[in-house]
Structure formats: structure tokens, C-alpha cells
Amino acid sequence: MNTLERFRRSYFFYSFKRDKTALVSFSIFAFLVLVSLLAPVIAPHDPYDTSTIDILDAEIPPSWMDGGEDRFWLGTDIQGRDLYSTMLYGLRTSVAIGLGAVIFQALLGIAVGLTAGYMGGKTDSFLMRIADIQFSIPYLIVAIIASAVFQLAFGVARFAEMAMPLLIVIIGISEWPKYARTVRASVLGERKKEYVEAARVIGLNRWRIMIRHILPNTLTPVLVISTIQVAQAVMSEAALSFLGLGMPITKPSLGSLIKAGFEYVFSGSWWITFFPGLLLVVFTLVVILFGDWLRDVLNPKLYKG
Amino acid sequence: MNKKRDTRRADREKNLLVIEDLVKHFDISGGFLDQLKWENGRLARKRTLVKAVNNVSFSILPGETLSVVGESGCGKSTLARTILGLYPPNSGGIFYRGDRLESLSSEKMLPYRARMQMIFQDPYASLNPRMTVERILEEPLRFHKRSLKNSEVKEKVAEVMSQVGVDQKWSDRYPHEFSGGQRQRISIARALMVDPEFIVADEPVSALDVSIQAQILNLLMDAQDRRGLTYLFITHDLSVVRHISTRVAVMYLGTMCELAPTGDLFENPRHPYTRALLSAIPRLGEKKPKHIRLKGEVPTPIDLPPGCVFHGRCMYADERCRTEVPRFNLCDSGSRVACHRVEEGKL
Amino acid sequence: MAHLLEVEDLEVKFALRFGALTAIDGMSFTLDKREKLGIVGESGAGKSVTGFAIINLLSKPGYISGGRIIFEGRELNKLPDEEMRQLRGNRISMIFQDPMMTLNPVFTIGTQMVETLQAHRRIGKREAWDLAVEKLRKVYIPSPETRMHQYPFEMSGGMRQRIVIAIALLTDPSLIIADEPTTALDVTIQAGIMDLLQELCESEDMGLILITHDLAVVSQVTERIIVMYAGKIVETGPTEAIIHNQKHPYTKGLIASLPGVGEAGNRLNQIPGMMPTLTAIPEGCAFHPRCKMSEAVCQREQPKPMPVMDPGHFSACHFANSKEIVI
Asked: What residues of chain C lie within 8 A of the CB of B297, using their CB?
């Protein structure tokens, strides 16, 4: 039985097919990711191309309202950019940062958790103390300081270019302890199992046992928290951008779009904040719902044969 | 003095395995703060030691099956793991064909690892759930014999699999797809892959159904005949012990109470604990003899009683037993017993 | 004379995504007051399921799909939940392998025992407390008053199991179902618990169903044994007969495979293959693929238990009376 067949027949897939929430949330998630990846192809306008933007087009309401135009389906923002296109690109940026940050957190956290859990003793205490310290510093403070320092050191323009990787690193650094703790807990449990003793009796060295034997068995909880972490990373990025510490207005993410439109809500151009906000909420919601389902289905205690 | 050392050395070389005064304690005191306790009006540092193995000495001859029996907490599993180097002993010597093992670095231990293997109790935890049967079996071979070609490895794996009754078709399946008995066969195959001389079996059939137990025990006995293996068999099941062992060692709270050839132990148990143990086993179809009820509860290996570890529950205990630890003496019958009464000839 | 417990053609199924699997297929037996019955079999044979079915505690997806269970004249499987709850833990008590399945780790023994009593009858706290202490004494627990204030983690496994038995006795039940009560205990402790159960059956006028895989234990404690295989009874009869004069190839093979029965050092008798899982139960006699005596009729027809020589001894084998049992 090859892997594809095995997957199709598995309880995992069976449960997925039966749970409507899982099906719907995963479909929407997949759809949104696909759409964001295809943004350059789908979007009617390119929001980065300043030559196509006309300031006179600013603040046009959505097409179905009075004053709306057909070429701008959801209206335009304060700079005259098509909101719909900008949102698609914004989603792409948000998703990229979300996934990037989670991959960063996961790699760092798994490495630390694995080492701390298996080595034990002083190594464990040391690494976990660092994780605790890291965890107790709110990411906002880290972000503010990091952004400020970077902008001072390299100038605003350079910051705009490096914003995306910088945000990935900032959000990644603030959350890796979560992965470290989860993996460490798994490792502590697996370490006592007899297959690990068997590996030691064979004579394998520590690193080999850690990476080839224990690591694969600690990944299930990692998968479970990852979905929630993606949602959280996207939200964190949105919050940072909203505060002006994140993506610049020229390369917007959903968060910076929300911020940009915020001042104009009361003057009547509600759509500039509303639609990006709605998209952000929907995206985060489907990720969390899917993550919830994933957590239940992978929970060994709930598994009902 | 020299004569003693010479006999010791001869002893070590004649036997496959010689254990001398092995001690293994686990310090579970915890961190500095956990150790602080309020005692007698002052703050004191309390160390909590689990004295799992206390001065155990014995030897194993090549080709024999030595069983170590005892109830939970007696230290038999710890003993097995310390012998295989999974735990470093606190003191004492482990000699394999005369070579001292306990202080070797992991690198120097490698050649011995290919000669000493282990089979575990829990068939559900002793195989890595994320590895296929093939990978599980190939790993020890590839690790110890790097020079082997791919085809040679696969050939050897197939050979051992068939010896052990594991179907070739199972190679690419995962452990959770198998029953307890089948997994235990896979575990045994893994242990046999490197052609070891000495195998420690830690309760290999306790978690299996009766009819499967018989299959696995037969498998172990066949493997021993075919390969000339030496077994150290850890178990609590005395009927299994009687069936397969050449000699039996009885442990209680980390101390070896009695070591005798199987027949002798069952027919003429010397140590009071051995007697109580044997009287408590339910025998199939025989009307139950009045079993010797032991007084009190089993003390823990943390608060080891002074003197003889068994004195609190023994009906023959006296003042000497409360203060003096009995030596593991050789009796005239050839068995060793650690009991003052037996030494004094009163039992 | 009415039996204490009568099980008639009990059928238990598990509703899984592939369909319904039969865990118990037409089981019938009786139990009288003061009688000690052993149900033996290997894992998956259905013995624990029988115990749970009697007190109607089968967890989904298991359910009773047929047959009757009559206890003290009342049909149990038809009883509404409310009435069943009055019987459970009251007239029928169950003891499990792991005492921590019964004992709540966060409450003291005293609290748990008083709570159990008060759940089943109108009784004041003081009175319940005294009754509990009396039951602890009955199971030979030293200094029972002190124990009442202790938590389960402060006691050894053997002590905990005794407390579980004491709890089972609180309401003076007429039937105790013990599911592997001593499997997790050391041999010396096991002996004490089994003695205790025997003694209590006599003194308290109770019936005992002992479910276990340990043939040696069951041979010492019970008067009758039921041997189960793949959800069916293959042989039942007086303990003596089952141990010394088996009339079914499975039972005979099982007894012969025990170390300690034959000559030490010889190969043990081995029944080839494994007991079928519920999804793969063969047609006809469930044991036929592993049986040396199997013939065409065994593959077609499922044998029903038929009486053999000794009184009260039945065997579900086509050749129980006609041929000698060969393994």
C-alpha cells in the first residue's frame, strides 16, 4: 500500500470528509491561499505600479453604491489604488509573513525543545530559562525596539525593503518558546519509551537517536499548534502594521490597509477599512476552525478506532 | 591476597558475564529548593535516594539461561539495564569475558554492543511507531557492519525474519498494524540481527496472551539452541522460570536473596522470601497449599530498612537480622543464599 | 429454584464504520448465590465485554443486540437507565484490574466510600462513615480509621485493591463481577486478594464472576469455568473437569501450552496462528483454522455447546463426544 492509498483509507481522511466544519474551513483556506498566490494574475490592477495609480481616483466607493465605478469593484483607497487588487496583494503578504514566521518559530523551537528535552540536566535548565525570558517579553516591545533600531540604523527606505523578512524574524523570535515547550514535553515522554532504550542498546549515539528516532514522534503536537500559530502570526503582523511598525504603505499587508483606512472611517469611506478587515477575520477564522478540528482528530485519547 | 585476585580473574574469564558488587542508586532529590525540608526545628537538606540495586554479585556461564525473579520494585529491571550500560553504575564491576565494561566510553563499548542485546517487555513501546519493520531491522545491521552492501543487508534481514516467523510481506508496514505477539517477534528479530552472544530479556512474554507466550518462549528456546545464546531472563512468572532456566536468582528490594540451579530452588528453597514466594504461586489443578502470609507491606527502595532488607516481614528475624546485612554465601548444595539463619544452619 | 443471574443467548455488537461486528455471539450461562464462576479466555475473546454487558455499561459503539439478562428475576437489558443505576454498584458491584479506575485520586477514601453509600440509600454521614470503617475491617485493612483520611496515592497497589473490594461490599451486593482483579499485582499480594474474595463469597452470601486470562488463579478459586473464544463459549463445566479432562481442542491446547504443566525444558505446546479479530471471524467453527481435528463440517456449521460425560460439562465441538480430543 503506497502512501496515497494509505492516506485515503485512513481514519484521518474519513473523519475529514464527515466533518462539515473541517471541509468548509479547509476549502476556504485553500481557496484564499490559492487566490493570494495568483494575485499577480487575477488582480485587475497592479497596486505596486505607481504609473497606473491616479490620485484623482481616491476614495471611490464600491461599485454597487452611489458614485462607484465598475472598474473598481470594492472601491479605492486614499491613494487611488483599487481596493480589491490591493487586498489580494495584501493577503499574499500577510500569508507569506504568517507562514514564514511560523516556519521560523517551528525550526528554532523544535531544535531547542529537542535538545533540552533529550539532554536534560543543565542544558535543559539553561535553554528553558532562555525560553521563559523570551516568553515574558511581549512581542510588541521587541517589535518596537527592533523596528526603531533598524530604521535608525538603515534608514526608512531600507526598512521598507527589509520589512517582510524583519517581521518574519520578529514574530518568529517572540513565539518560538511555544514550540520549544511543546516539543520538549513530547520528548520527555518519548525518551522513556523502550524503543529509545533499544536504540541505545544497539549503540546509536545521542544525536542520531534524537533526530531519527525521537523527532518524528514529536511532530504531531507540532502540527496541531502550527495552525493556530499561523492565525496568530497573521494577527500579530496585522497588529504591528496597524501600529505603523509593520509593512509600509507601499507594500501593504491587510493590517496596514486597515490602518490606512482607519482615519477615513468616520469621514464616510468605510470600505477602505472594512473589506480588508473582513478578509483578515475570515482568513484567521478558517485557519483556527481547521486547527480545532485537527487537534481533535489527532488527539490520541479521543481516537475512536 | 594474590591468590584471591587470581581466582577472581580466572572466574571472570571462564564466565561470559561476571557482576561484582554492583550498586545502582537513583538520586531523586530534585533541585536545590526541593531538597530543603523543615526537620526538628531547622532547615535541612534532604537527599532522596532510590536504592535500586545493592551490592549484587553473580556470574553467568556461556550457554546458560539465568532467570532473575522478584516482585515489582525489587530492582531486576534496573539490574538488567545497568548490566547493558543503559545506566552507569554507582560502583561495582561488570566483566564480559574478562573485559571490564562499566567505565568504557560509548565508543569503546561499540564492539560489545554487537554482542549484547536486549528484548523488552512492552511490545507496544519497544518498536518506533514511525519506522517500518524493514527500517527497524536494518538499522542495527547497517550501524554495526557498515561495509555490507545493500543486497547483503536485505538478504540477512530476510533470513532473520524467516527464522523468527515474521512474514516478508510485513516489511513495509508499521508496528501499530501488528498484534502484541507479532511485534515481539519483530523485537526479537531486531536483537538477533547483529548475531549477539548474550541477550537480556526483560519480561518478554508478560504482556502476551497465554497461547502466544508459548510461541514466543519456544522461539527463544529455538534461537538459543541454534545460535548458542546465553540468556539473562527477567520475569516475575515463576512457572516460565521453571520451564526454561538453568539457574534462578531471587531478588528482593535490590538485593539478591538466593541463587540456585532451577531444580534445587523449586524443590528446596532456602531463603524465607523464596519460600513465601513459591508458596504464593497458584498452581494449576493442585489444591492450594496454605500459603505463607508475609507480614506487613513491601517497604520502598527509598527507605531501605537497615540490616537484612527482608527482616521486617520475615518470621525468622532476630536482632542480628535487624542490624547486620547478610552475606551472599555459598551453601554446600552449590547455591548462594543471603540469610543469617541459613548461615547459622538453622534453616 | 431461581438462579441469581441468568444470561440467555446474549449478543453484543459494535457498530463501526464498516458495519456491525459481533463481539459476543449467543452466550448463555447461569450463576447461583454463593457460586464462583470463572470466565477465561485470551484478550479479544469477549470476557470483559460480558461483564460490562451484564451491568449495561457498554460504551459506544458497543450495544446489546439480542438475548436476555435476568438478575434476581428482573430483566436487566430492558430496564430504563434510572432503575439500572439503582442496581449498579448496589446489588451488582464490579471490580476492575486497575484500582485507579474506581478510586478518584483527588478525594480521600472516606469521602469516596461515604459518597457511594449515600448514593444508594438514605443514610446519615456518621452512620455511613461507621459502616465504611466496618467494611474496611472486613477486608483486613489495618488501622481502618486512619485509612479513611488517606488518599489513594498514599497506598500500595494491593491495599488499593482491597479498598476497591470494600467499596464493592458497601451496599451488600448479591453479585460481584471481578475483571482481572489481581493481574496487576504481585504474586504474594495476589494470593491474599484471591483468598479474601473466596472468603467473602461464603460469608456474605454473594455470587462471584471472576474474569481472567490466568488459568491457574481461576482453577484455585472457582467451582465452574466458562472458556471463551472469539465471542463464543467453547467449553463450560466444573473446574476440575476443565482443568483435567478437557473436551475441546482449544481448551486442551491452552492448558497444554502453559509452562509448568509439561516437562521443564521441552518445547511448549503451541497453538498455531492467533485468535481471529472481530473483523475476521471464520465461517463455521471459529477455531477450525487452528485446529488439528478440523473437518469439512467444522468449516460449514457453527457447533453449539453440547453435553459431554461429566454432569454440567458442555463443549462446543462437533466431535466432543465422538472422538478423542487431539492437539
From this structure: 156, 158-159
pLDDT tens figures, A190-211? 998 999 999 999 999 989 999 9
Inter-residue contact C325 to C315 (CB < 8 Å): no
> Distances from the Cα of C269 to the Cαs of C23, C69, C215, C232, C255, in angstroms?
28, 37, 16, 23, 9
Kindly state the cell numbers that stand for A131. 525560553
- pLDDT tens profile B146-167: 888 999 999 999 999 999 998 8
Rounded to whole angstroms, the Cα distance separating B14 from C192 reads 44
Was domain A31-298 assigned CATH 1.10.287.130?
no
Please give the domain boundaries of chain B with CATH numbers for all domains. 61-90+103-115+194-343 (3.40.50.300)
Q: Give chain A positions within 8 Å (CB) of C16.
A: 305
Q: How far is A87 from chain B (nearest CA, A)?
A: 42
**Residue entry with cell 485553500:** A30
Q: What is the ipTM of this complex?
A: 0.87
For chain C, the structural domain boundaries read 5-222, 228-315
Domain boundaries, chain A: 31-298
Beta carbons of C191 and B242 less than 8 Å apart: no
> Is the Cβ pair C61, A304 closer than 8 Å?
yes
What CA–CA distance (Å, rounded) separates B117 from B144?
13
Res. A303 pLDDT band, cuts 50 70 90: very low
Is A304 an interface residue toward C (CB < 8 Å)? Answer: yes
Whether the predicted pLDDT of C214 surpasses 50: yes
Q: How far is A184 from chain B (nearest CA, A)?
A: 18
> Does the distance separating the beta carbons of A14 and C17 come in below 8 Å?
yes
Furthest C-alpha separation in chain C: 67
Interface test with B, best of C159, C188, C217, C227 (most B CBs within 10 A): C188
| CA–CA distance, A169 with A158 (Å, rounded to integer) | 16
CA–CA separation, B88 and B82 (whole Å):
6
The CATH number of domain C5-222, selected from 3.40.50.200, 3.20.20.10, 3.40.50.300, 3.40.50.1260: 3.40.50.300
Interface contact B72-C270, CB threshold 8 A = no
Of C187, C213, C269, the CB nearest to B281: C187
